[in-house]
């Protein structure tokens, strides 16, 4: 039987050798990090590929305010974040004319009540008009037979069922109605992330849509669909709270109705190239110099406290050849601004 002194001695030896082993492991890890650091200094990472050459400048819409704003940093850390020195730029996929495009488009729109071959507006745009009934809105759809983009309009702003909120869906039911309509049109692209779908509530005042304060005052639900992240960063659109794929759902005599749709989608290729990007501090300097797109702002003052700075990819509501990164600044007063992240030397003047 082991004596107490022997057990104590064994325990001490175990603790000693465990400590030596742990210390050796820490030394090995430290030496490994030092070796990696030295290697990076001697052989720095390869330069960005810049395979697409000079890129066209991002065509931002006109900003929402022309005020002279002043900015301060109020992030959690009290400082601006540190970004990588590069980011991917992606090509978009152009649409190719198809001899069967009109027939295919006619089939798609017929699944939602639009009949016939449509009326040509241009080479790629055709228009269909639905039949007016007592219980349904009269709708018009203008469809790009090559790209699949379309706009649906109706007289919903003056429709009695919509104005009274008869059978108005809640957010979940509105999303289901929107998805069903787009599915019937074969208009839910593979790169749509349905988990990111958002619903916003609107009232109708003086013949226009305004944000509703509650569901009880809501007359129209806007459903916005978003594309999947590109790498580690999300996709953003000209209006931060929506996208370029929006469906508006209102009430009806027997069930909810699709009142309006603005659907514009750009296919993004897997082909990409890396480009050098500016730092967060350089982007902040551009923001202060007015070289930014002010996407949202409630105009309640001129002093903006920036509380969040991130990277994202900007997709416009107009065709673009490349999808490029932007630095996003968010702050108080509903403020959101986008700054192009690609270094100026790689952007066409």
The Cα radius of gyration reads 28 Å
**Cα shape:** elongated
| SSE string | HEEHEEEEHHEEEEEEEHEEEE
Low confidence ranges: none
Q: Helicity range of the residues?
A: 10-25%
The description of the largest β-sheet is: 9 strands, antiparallel
Strand residue content:
25-35%
Number of helices: 5
Structural classification:
alpha+beta
Strands of the widest sheet, in order across it, are: 3-4-5-6-12-11-9-7-8
Q: Any overview of this molecule?
A:
The chain is an alpha+beta fold. It has three domains: 7-44; 70-92 and 270-346, Lipocalin (Beta Barrel); 101-266, no CATH class. The chain is 22% helix and 29% strand. It has helices at residues 4-42, 101-110, 160-164, 171-184, 280-288, and strands spanning 70-73, 86-92, 119-120, 125-129, 139-144, 150-154, 198-205, 208-211, 220-224, 235-236, 245-250, 257-263, 268-276, 293-296, 303-314, 322-331, 335-340. The chain has a nine-stranded antiparallel sheet with strand order 3-4-5-6-12-11-9-7-8. The longest helix has 39 residues, at 4-42. It is elongated. It starts with a helix and ends in a 9-residue tail after the last strand. The model has no long low-confidence stretch (mean pLDDT 90).
